[in-house]
What we know:
With 300 residues, this protein is of the alpha+beta class.
Amino acid sequence: MKIAILSRDGSLxxxxxxxxxxxxxxxxIDIIDPLSCYMNINPAxxxxxxxxxxxxxYQAVIPRIGSAITFYGTAVLRQFEMxxxxxLNESVAITRARDxxxxxxxxxxxxxxxxxxxxxxxxxxxxxLIALVGGAPxxxxxxxxxxxxxVVLAETRQAAESVIDAFRGLNAHILVQEYIRExxxxxxxxxxxxxxxxxxxxxQAKPGDFRSNLHRGGTATKVKITSQEKEIAVKAxxxxxxxxxxxxxxxxHRGPLVMEVNASPGLEGIETTTxxxxxxxxxxxIEQRAKPGFRLKSGG
Length: 300
């Protein structure tokens, strides 16, 4: 099988592991920078060109598209979908997951438990917005943020008002979310492949921080999750239309709460912590799904 990885940096751990796993199974794999692609959007003969040459047809495409290039990266992925390539996460699902507000609205519509979340536009909404999520302490998040960037814990009402007003002064779109105190800076990252959770780790924020992201200095340990946590993680991924997802869950007194669904989860932390071959499981999933005559199951 001929497989493409869409990534700006082939030296990253996740790309290297996916390439190793694919080649060990006898597949031919290319790493392609999506920003170096350009497209012929022709109904009679659509094509993707890369650094001066027309690309061959790939049976499957693995998108490892960073949030900074979501618009162009998903446009390139859509073009591969037009050509009949099987995408390990469809373009429409990636854009759905990247918009925190949209994804939370979709999850809430399907009855998936979330932290109480507020969203508003005008400054005169600030007081009621804070009350809506239960008051301070609360969390303020940039809608477009990733890896813990643009996430602030406001411990008092005054601090919350200041942070919200500051973000609004920058014309940034923000979410205001209840702070789950009992989580104590911990969350569960569930790695979903298809219809099952293949691995889970507990991430702990570094001292003095509440963000558990490994990129922000958090630590990880293996964890056993409950059947309810497995069920909610798989349901969250499927609700957003994702084949592969990192579903972040908070353990609250009222039960597991989905904090975020990541459409391009990193593999280094979860593979090194669990010792599992997650990259191999992803390639196995492609082998099962990328069959001749593939057709996209959801619209663009």
